[in-house]
Design a protein that fits this description.
The protein is mostly helical. The protein is 67% helix and 1% strand. It has a two-stranded antiparallel sheet with strand order 1-2.
């Protein structure tokens, strides 16, 4: 019997409906659309409306593309498993990519709101969120009370200056070098944690803080004198010049010399670092950190290598903090003898307490609280028609800011002990409650 073979039809084509329900479609839209809005001259009046419409579309697509019902083990272990989680993740991607174009626009807000100033605040928040998340990984997740946080910011600045200035290296080499140095020194600093805990460990790490400050002063005087360190503006490597909005100058260089350009350097580094820490917490080592935090004796009886977990937590946290210290020094452009003090440790402590212990998200919310709130208070004292007439608020601005911030800290901790992370969880659950879908 003879017959003809059907021609090879090739792989099946994806229909439009299947493409819309694909799990990566909302994220692709969230990534591509901000660059299109930034390049099309629609005028600022129309861009916010277009952004809101696309934001709703992205969230809806992310919600509907999430698998429901019984899931496989791989789906159950996904980073964003629930519909609301995928929706908020897609919305966050879109917001992060849209934000710099909004700040760089010619928008003139009413009541002289400092629109351009928020670009600097946003970049500062991203740098602090990276360091605060690493601090929370050590203190919140592993339960190792440490005051050596600023010591590793100092170490990152020293490493960045040594590699980037004295050895004529680049920013892209100085930041990883700071992470390596931080991991090594952090492992050494973590050795007392094998024998000490609680207040005794806190005092031991406080000693590390003052030793590193002494080393910082000696380093400045020996190598840079009393003028401090001046960091050069970094450049984008030539093999990345194909990226959108990168137009090298006549020398073939693309200097990172504006807030807009710095945002596209700081934001990806911070996001990748935060996602890395989130995934570390989800691993076996992350569960070991939590066991050590609850009680290290019980953790050892369960087979957890307590010494290894403590040293790993110190090394990992110190590496990320040192990287944020180097990146922050390059961003500010200068460091002096008074750039680091004990108040900086307390600032980070406030960030993770208000944001929420044992939460990477808490570092983000706490940083927003710590840096955005004072700027909003300053604007309100100068422009809001009722508040600006109160002389007492204008005569004592710093004291009023600290008092209001302290009152808000107490209110948050009393009514929401989980911090701003708890508030965020309540907000995220609103779409689920409205749709009637249960998140198990």
């Amino acid at each position: 019997m003879t017959g003809t073979l059907a021609p090879d039809a090739g792989p099946p084509r994806m229909t439009l409906k299947q493409l819309a329900r694909h799990k990566m479609t909302p994220f692709a839209i969230a990534i591509v659309t901000p660059f299109l809005l930034g390049s099309i001259e629609l005028g600022f009046r129309w861009q916010p409306y277009a952004a809101v419409v696309i934001l709703v579309v992205v969230a809806r697509l992310a919600w509907t593309s999430t698998p429901s019902g019984e899931q496989s083990y791989r789906q159950d272990m996904a980073l964003w498993r629930l519909p609301s989680e995928r929706s908020w993740a897609a919305v966050t991607v879109f917001a992060l990519l849209t934000l710099p174009f909004m700040f760089a626009s010619g928008f003139d807000p009413p009541m002289d709101f400092p629109w351009a100033t928020w670009f600097t605040i946003t970049n500062t928040i991203l740098i602090f969120a990276m360091g605060a998340a690493a601090f929370n990984l050590l203190v919140g997740y592993t339960g190792q009370i440490s005051l050596a946080h600023v010591a590793f910011l100092v170490l990152g600045s020293i490493t960045g200056a040594t590699v980037g200035i004295q050895w004529s290296g680049t920013f892209w080499l100085a930041v990883p070098a700071a992470g390596i140095a931080g991991a090594i020194i952090g492992g050494i600093v973590g050795l007392p944690a094998l024998r000490l805990r609680g207040l005794y460990l806190l005092l031991a790490t406080l000693g590390v803080h003052f030793v590193m400050l002494l080393a910082w002063r000696e380093y400045l005087l020996r190598n840079f004198g009393f003028v401090g360190i001046r960091f050069d503006k970094p450049t984008i490597p030539s093999w990345l010049h194909w990226l959108p909005f990168i137009n090298p100058d006549e020398n073939g260089e693309f200097l990172i010399n504006s807030q807009f350009r710095w945002y596209w350097v700081i934001m990806p580094i911070t996001v990748v670092t935060l996602l890395f820490m989130v995934n570390v917490i989800r691993t076996r080592e992350g569960r070991a950190f939590a066991a050590v935090r609850e009680r290290d004796v019980s953790a050892s009886l369960l087979g957890v290598n307590v010494a290894r977990s403590k040293l790993l937590a110190f090394a990992l946290s110190s590496a990320i903090v040192s990287m944020s210290g180097a990146m922050g020094s390059y961003y500010l452009g200068a460091r002096g003898e008074d750039s680091f003090n004990i108040n900086l440790v307390l600032n980070y402590a406030v960030i993770i307490v208000v944001g929420g212990f044992s939460s990477i998200q808490g570092a983000i919310f706490g940083s927003v609280f710590f840096w955005a709130l004072p700027e909003w208070f300053k604007w309100a004292r100068e422009e809001v028609w009722i508040i600006k007439d109160i002389d007492f608020l204008s005569d004592h601005p710093s004291e009023i800011d600290l008092a209001i911030k302290g009152i808000l800290v107490v209110i948050i901790l009393v009514y929401k002990p989980e911090g701003l992370t708890g508030v965020w969880k309540d907000v995220k659950s609103i779409p689920s409650r409205l749709s009637g879908r249960r998140e198990l």
